[in-house]
Each structure stands twice: as structure tokens, then as C-alpha cells.
Structure to design on (113 residues):
């Protein structure tokens, strides 16, 4: 009962915040393009889960398959430029280094206990 009330309340809030008052229906071509744009991420998700749940890959290997599939999709859509690739690698390296340092800091702190 509470879940229903929360969902109904959230739905009204969502309508007020994110839907314009004079919203018009999308034309068929635009609706089809939006649907087609969502199929690639859904396909990558299905591929990763399918490989993991059937036991062909481990969780880490499935994430690598997903990353390669996303990169392949970006290349096919011609959105993967050298600048995008370099920014992604730099951002990932920065975050990985930060996580590595937190692990080292926690290990040093806990070995003193």
C-alpha cells in the first residue's frame, strides 16, 4: 500500500517537474530514432548478462566485454575520436590512481591496529 502511494506521488512530482505543460506528441520518425538509439545500450546489457549468466565469462570478463562493445559502438557511430579516447583514458587513470591510494592508505592504517 505504501509503495503504491509513493509511486503515485512520485509520478505526479515527475509530471510536474519534467513534462512541459504544452507538450506535443512526437512525430513517428523522431519516435523511431529515439527507440533505435536505446537499442544499442540494451543490446550491450543483454550481451554482458547473457555471457555472465550462462557461465561463459566471469563478472570481470563480462565488464570487459561490455567496455569493448561500447567502444565498438562508438567507433561504428564515428563518435570515437582521438580526443575522446585520450580524455577517457586520462579520467580513468586518475580515478584508478585515487582508488589505489585509498586502498594503500587503508592498509597502512589497519596494519597499525
Amino acid at each position: 500500500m505504501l509503495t503504491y502511494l509513493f509511486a503515485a506521488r512520485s509520478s505526479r512530482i515527475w509530471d510536474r517537474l519534467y513534462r512541459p505543460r504544452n507538450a506535443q506528441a512526437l512525430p513517428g520518425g523522431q519516435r523511431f530514432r529515439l527507440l533505435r538509439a536505446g537499442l544499442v545500450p540494451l543490446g550491450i546489457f543483454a550481451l554482458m548478462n547473457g555471457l555472465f549468466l550462462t557461465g561463459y565469462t566471469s563478472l570481470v570478463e563480462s565488464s570487459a566485454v561490455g567496455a569493448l562493445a561500447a567502444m565498438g559502438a562508438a567507433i561504428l557511430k564515428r563518435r570515437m575520436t582521438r580526443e575522446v579516447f585520450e580524455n577517457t583514458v586520462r579520467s580513468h587513470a586518475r580515478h584508478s590512481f585515487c582508488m589505489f591510494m585509498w586502498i594503500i592508505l587503508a592498509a597502512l592504517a589497519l596494519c597499525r591496529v
In short: Residues 82-111 form the longest helix (30 residues).
